[in-house]
Amino acid sequence: MEGKKQAVIQAVQNETALTNVQELMNSSTERCYKACVTNPGASLTGNEQKCLSSCFDKYLEAFTIVSKAYGTRLRSE
Amino acid sequence: MSDASLKLDAATQKELQAFIAQETAQRKVNESIHQFTKMCWDKCISNVTSGRLAPAESSCLTNCVGRFLDASLHLVNDVESKRQQINAA
């Protein structure tokens, strides 16, 4: 019984984590593409690639800050 | 889940229900965080190539979340007042 229970718990947690990562990728790709690739060419330029990477790092930071701000607020209400 | 006959006793079912409720709440929180990040990124970040977040951008993001929640509460209170006005009339 314990094994089945753990299997369910693990599966659900994995699903939550996967959904979270997918959402993060979709959001960051959308915003960073908009910011970095203003004139789509036949392939990504070096500058565009650098911009995308910088932007992604920044988006992760922003996500972390927002998580903290929201978490703090939830705990205080 | 490969086990098609996931028969569980009542106690285990109860535990799992509690866990699922908690996990569902966590997913709602996660979804909100994603919505806030998108909204506040659009409000606060203009330069995407500058590397790390500037202090001004950090506080903008934090304020953005706080003020959105305040705005939400404010409007809920407005709606409640209106509801009470209608009931009193």
UniProtKB/TrEMBL annotation, chain A:
Gene3D superfamilies: Mitochondrial import inner membrane translocase subunit tim13 like domains (1.10.287.810)
GO cellular component, one term: mitochondrial intermembrane space chaperone complex
Membrane topology label: Peripheral membrane protein
SUPFAM superfamilies hit by this protein: Tim10-like
Biological process annotations from GO: protein insertion into mitochondrial inner membrane; protein transport
Family to which this protein belongs: Belongs to the small Tim family.
Protein name: Mitochondrial import inner membrane translocase subunit
From TrEMBL, chain B:
Compartments it resides in: Mitochondrion inner membrane
Keyword Membrane: yes
Gene Ontology cellular-component annotations: mitochondrial inner membrane
Main location: mitochondrion
Family: Belongs to the small Tim family.
Protein role: Mitochondrial intermembrane chaperone that participates in the import and insertion of some multi-pass transmembrane proteins into the mitochondrial inner membrane. Also required for the transfer of beta-barrel precursors from the TOM complex to the sorting and assembly machinery (SAM complex) of the outer membrane. Acts as a chaperone-like protein that protects the hydrophobic precursors from aggregation and guide them through the mitochondrial intermembrane space.
Name under which the protein is recorded: Mitochondrial import inner membrane translocase subunit
Organism (species): Coprinellus micaceus
Taxonomic lineage from the root: Eukaryota, Fungi, Dikarya, Basidiomycota, Agaricomycotina
